[in-house]
Amino acid sequence: MSKFAKKKDGELPAVSTASLPDIVFMLLFFFMTVTVMKDSSIMVENTLPNATEIKKLEKKDRVIYIFAGKPTKEYSNVYGTETRIQLNDKFASVEEVGSYILAERAKKPQELQNVLTTALKVDKEANMGLISDIKQELRKVNALKVNYTTFEGDAFNNLQ
Amino acid sequence: MPRRKGAPEVNAGSMADIAFLLLIFFLVTTTIETDAGLDRMLPPMEPPTEEPPIIRQRNIFTVNINRNGQLLVEEEIMDIKNLRAAATAFLDNGGAPSGDPEHCSYCKGKRDSESSDNPTKAIISLKNDRETKYSTYITVQNELVGAYNDLRNREAQRLYGTDFVKMEAEYLNPETPSSVRDELKDKVKRIQELFPQKLSEAETSKNQ
């Protein structure tokens, strides 16, 4: 009889790992529900310019997005290749920006309505004419806080 | 006598591995992306009856961008790489003589009487063409904001021994405890008052 065989009696029973899958599934479901997949498909080319002096847009619920750029390949034969504005899921004209902002603002809770930021996600190839028009529209509806969304990177790369 | 047992239990030990695999997949693919960019305030629509305030020419720093992305700064052509230095020199000039109510005690500029009197009076006026490319505009904006940030950093280093940009990021971060934020608020405000961001954007010119 070996010394080692005897030890078996005093050994602790193995911890049951049967509930491990449940725990992991719980985590999995948490991540699956919390993850927000892209909510609107972008229909315009959207290569943002680079900048270094950037600030993060912290609170997502306080942001209204406006996209602008050339329509992507799928849409270019219908909508042409001129720079267009995209609001939610459709192309829009400059005049619609104001009413869109007002509609989005009305959807937000009362206490957030005065602290909203408009994030302009504009393709770097766009012309300033369109941006100026958007800015004028934003001024008309008193949405004065804007954020030119950019990537972090050397701003001089934009010039090439 | 054969012992009757139910169906043998399926080994569920590998279930955890499968679940982990899925979990890790979701963890990796999830990008809790936070957008970042240049924050700017647009000027409010002014009532048409209001008279524009009179500003001395030396307190205005004009930046013009033409359709080809070339810069005209204070009536001179300038390379975009030199813009930050030029803007910093203008803001930090502090031209008002000592004894004057507008004298700037913390400025380290040249004290040129032809340039800005005081950082609180200095205005940068940015004008662009309708055909200017957005990327050029962002670069110019970035350089101008950078000039302000450089000066604010300098003052924050002098007064509080830390960078303004860092302080502001911490102040804006919602995870910062409110006691820390209250303390930061005063500091951030103080620095902002030393170098207020006065960046005026004229409406774009159509043909120039």
Protein model, in words:
The complex is a heterodimer of chains A (160) and B (208). Chain A is built from 5 helices and 7 strands, in the order H-H-E-E-E-H-E-E-H-E-H-E. With 160 residues, chain A is α/β, with parallel strands linked by helices. Chain A has a domain at 50-159: Nucleotidyltransferase, domain 5, CATH 3.30.420. Chain A has a 6-stranded mixed β-sheet, covered by helices on one side. The radius of gyration of chain A is 26 Å and the shape is elongated. Chain A starts with a helix and ends in an 8-residue tail after the last strand. In chain A, 28% of the residues are buried. The mean pLDDT of chain A is 83. Chain B is of the alpha/beta class. Chain B has a domain at 57-201. Chain B has 5 helices and 6 strands, in the order αββββαβαααβ. Chain B has helices at 15-29, 83-91, 134-160, 164-172, 178-194, and strands spanning 36-41, 60-65, 71-73, 76-78, 123-128, 199-201. At the A-B interface, helix 2, strand 1, strand 2, strand 6 and helix 5 of A face helix 1, strand 1, helix 3 and helix 4 of B.
Summarize the structure.
The complex is a heterodimer of chains A (160) and B (208). Chain A is α/β, with parallel strands linked by helices. Chain A has five helices and seven strands.
Which features does this protein show?
heterodimer, A: 160 residues, alpha/beta, Nucleotidyltransferase, domain 5, 6-stranded mixed β-sheet, 5 helices, 32% helix, 20% strand, elongated, B: 208 residues, 5-stranded mixed β-sheet
Task: Bin the helical content of chain A.
Answer: 25-40%
Query: What is the number of helical segments of chain B per DSSP (H or I, 4+ residues)?
Result: 5
CATH class of the domain at 50-159 in chain A: Alpha Beta
> What distance separates the N and C termini of chain A?
82 Å
Low-confidence stretches of chain B at least 5 residues in length (pLDDT < 50)?
A: none
Compute the separation of the termini of chain B in Å.
Answer: 104 Å
User: What value does the average pLDDT of chain B take?
Assistant: 82
Largest interface: A-B, 58 and 54 residues
Q: Please name the CATH topology of the domain at 50-159 in chain A.
A: Nucleotidyltransferase, domain 5
Number of strands of chain B: 6
Number of strands of chain A: 7
